[in-house]
Structures are given as C-alpha cells and as structure tokens.
Amino acid sequence: MPHDHAHIGAEAGDRRVGLAVAVNLGLTAAQVAGGILSGSLALIADAIHNLSDAMSLVIALVARRIARRPADSEMTFGYARAETVAALINYTTLILIGLYLVYEAVWRFFDPQPVTGWLVIAVAGVALVVDAVTAWLTYRMAKDSMNIRAAFLHNLADALGSVAVIVAGGLILTFGWQVVDPIVTLAIAGYILWHAGREIGDVIRVLMQGRPPAIAAERALAAIRDIGGVRNVYHLHLWQMDEHDPALTANVTLEPGRWAEADAIKGRIKDALRELGVGHATLELECAAHAVTGAPEIGHAAHRR
Q: How does DSSP classify residue 287?
C-alpha cells in the first residue's frame, strides 16, 4: 500500500478505531440475529468474521496505546512491538476461524438447512454499508500500521463477503438453490485463510528478527566494505526492531594505520547505511592488530547444546 505523509494524530486515530469497533459490534449482533432467523450459515459466517474484525480492532487499539510508551529499563527498545504481537494474535485467530467455517460449511452439505433468502439480502445489505464506513475510518491509518492495515483489508474482505451473501440470497429466492449457502461460506472461509496466510508472514518476520524486506543483508555488507579504511566486516546482524525501524550491528576491522580516523570512518559507514534505510546502527570498530579471523560475515556461529 502506498505511503504518504497525511498522518492522523494518535488520539484522533484512537477515536476512529473505537468508533469502528462500535460499528462492527452492532453489525455483528444484527447479522447473528438475521442468520438465526433466516437459517443462513453464510450470514452467520460473515457475522463471525465481523466479530473477529471488531476484536482485532480492540487488540490493535490497546496495542497502539502500549506501543506509544517510551523505552525504559525493562524494555530498552521500547514497546513498539506490542502492535506486532497484536497482529500475530489477530491473524492466528483469523486462521482458526477460517478453518472452523470450512468445517461448518462441509457439514452443511451433508445436513442442509432451509434459508430465508429475503432476510439474508436485507442484513447483508446493511453489512455492506457498515463495512464501507469502517474501511473509511481506518483507511489513512492503514498506511502506517500492520494492525490497522489488517483491519482495513479485513473490512474490504467483509464487503466482498456481503456481496457474495447477497448473491446467494438472490439465488435462493429465485431458484431455491439452498446449496449456494455453504458454497458461499466456503468462499468466505477461503478468502479469510488466503488473506491471513499472506499477511502473517510479515508479522513473523519482525518477531523472528528477520531482515527488513527492502534491505538485503548483502547490500548492507557491501556498503560498509566500500567505505575507505574498512578492511573486514563480520558478525553483521540486520533486523527490524518493529514494523518501521530497521537496526544493524556489525564488527568492523579497520585497515592498518587508519585507527586515528576511526570516528570519521564510523560516521561515513552510518551515512551509507542511512542511505539504505538503516537509521539505527551499532558498530564495533577494531584495529588491524586485533583482527578476528574465521568469523562469519553475516550472523554468528551457531552454538551447540
């Protein structure tokens, strides 16, 4: 998703997320009631997805507030990863919900239930409007947060699900095709699983201290080596402290006779890394007389237990 500089303030963003939660909870209650009265599993499936969106927004709202806390002696890198943890919870829950809906839809093939098509269409139409409102509330914030971005994309998925439910209700009313209901439920579940599976990779990358997607460790290594006075680089680590802040540590051996220029060389290295997008770099400089040999350039040697 493209990035711009039209940011929303923290408190204003929290109010938007809170309003989106309230709207989704109201919609969920209406869809569950409509699904029970009409007998539509697809409508209840869409309601469960909306409930998961509301809960994900609650988790994201709490995580947003925690993430704004400054670093302290207990969390020296700060609390920004609270949003990443929240995203992992949200996507894991979505995957479980998607699998449950698959189970329910398959079971409905063997035990079909009558569905009242007109009520399905009415409630799904309301859901489509509410999904559009929620997407509007979260659109701008979605550009800067994986949590809110997930909620925004979920609401777009909900909108598509509502369209599918409307189509199913119309087919039931027109042709009496009751089998359309579990088929639509499978389609909704499949979209949930596909979307959650695609998005959870970035969350796991941050939590597993993987490199930033846009910065290859080899490029960072080459950028440091290209600086005059650098003889060797080893034990380079490149990771994301949170969704937005790449970090790097490395041991750098200087060429013989260049120790007097250590501070200047370090400055040039950090400038080169900033051009790559790494704003937080910790470098340990060593003179050639104390050079380490045989150490891995990227990462460190594995410790056997």
A: -
User: C-alpha distances in angstroms, 70 versus 11, 66, 76?
Assistant: 17, 9, 9
The domain segmentation of the chain, as residue ranges, is: 10-207, 217-290
- The total number of residues written for the chain in this structure: 305
- pTM, whole model, 2 decimals? 0.74
From first to last of the 305 residues of the chain, give the pLDDT tens digit: 444 444 555 666 677 777 778 877 877 787 788 778 777 776 676 677 677 777 777 888 888 888 889 889 898 888 888 888 888 887 888 788 788 888 888 887 787 666 556 766 777 777 788 777 777 777 777 777 777 777 677 677 677 667 777 777 777 777 777 777 788 878 888 888 888 888 889 889 999 999 998 899 999 999 999 999 999 999 999 998 887 889 999 999 999 999 999 999 999 999 999 999 998 999 999 998 888 888 899 987 655 44
Lookup: tokens for 63: 């995580």
Which class for 62: exposed (0-12), middle (13-18), buried (19 or more C-beta within 10 A)? middle
In the three-class reduction of DSSP (H, G, I as helix; E, B as strand; rest coil), residue 57 is classed as: helix
Class at the top of the CATH hierarchy for domain 10-207: mainly alpha
| d(C-alpha 208, C-alpha 210), whole Å | 5
Superfamily classification of domain 217-290: Cation efflux protein, cytoplasmic domain (3.30.70.1350)
Say if residue 137 is exposed, middle or buried (CB neighbours under 10 Å; 0-12, 13-18, 19+). buried
